[in-house]
Amino acid sequence: MLNPPMNPVYRRRLWSHRIGIALSVAAMAVGLFFLLWILFTLLIKGVDAISLAMFRDTTPAPGSDGGGLLNAIVGSLMMVGAATAISTPVGILAGIYLAEYGEESWLAQVTRFVTDIMLSAPSIVIGLFVYAVYVANVKHFSGWAGTFAISLIAVPVIVRTTDNMLKLVPSSLREAAFSLGAPRWKVALMVRLRAVKAGVVTGVLLAVARISGETAPLLFTALNNQFFNADMNKPLANLPVVIYQFAMSPYDNWRALAWGGALLITFSVLGLNILSRTLFSQKVPN
């Protein structure tokens, strides 16, 4: 009998393993190279625009110097905050329903199917849907329309995350609660949800990170506003659309602000992702 190092089958499998590892490392290196290239370019060109004026002044007029992104930052915070407040309870409750009653109800199966479709739907389609349903009927763009659009993007993320996290709860916890006479709704809310609260918060943070940089839906809903505005019933400035418009402009000052805004969004989303991974590292109790 041949020794393992001399066995042709062993050697063939060893070489296949080495080639697979080499290809995997090469693919990772290519992706990492372009990612670092993008981040490096963004950092080099965006750091010059980061200043107190960017957070203090509103967007400048075409061809003028100075200015900032105050109105866009405030508008984005308002819409993302409102969308989070709307989508979080809806998504968590829908996720609880799917996890607790998903095997028994046809409605749960339909909900899960629709959620999967919305997760993969292009954001511009959602923006067009809100435009046709809301904006075209009220005859004007508004911050509420943008909030509604990005809420539709955030809800399926929270639903799917909550559903998956609740399924990780050991059945022994549910059985122990049922044996004590707890009703089903209380078991779902007070036992299962509490056991995976870190994972559910992670889903909410991932949804916030997802909608923070969406541009296409806001082009058809909130549009933009060059001036500071806190009225959600009117067109509202927001970072993604301002970055898009400024980056396509012929003015150096606008392009510099676009780089600064892109850097701000990138590091904000990066921070949310790091925070979500930190929370997700907390294990579900056995």
Account of the protein in words:
With about 290 residues, the chain is mainly α. It has 2 domains: about 5-45; about 50-280, MetI-like (MetI-like fold, Orthogonal Bundle). Helices cover about 75% and strands about 0% of the residues. The chain is built from 12 helices and no strands. About 35% of the residues are buried. The model has no long low-confidence stretch (mean pLDDT about 90). It is found in: Cell inner membrane; Cell membrane. It is a multi-pass membrane protein. Its main location: membrane. GO terms for molecular function: phosphate transmembrane transporter activity. This is Phosphate transport system permease protein PstA.
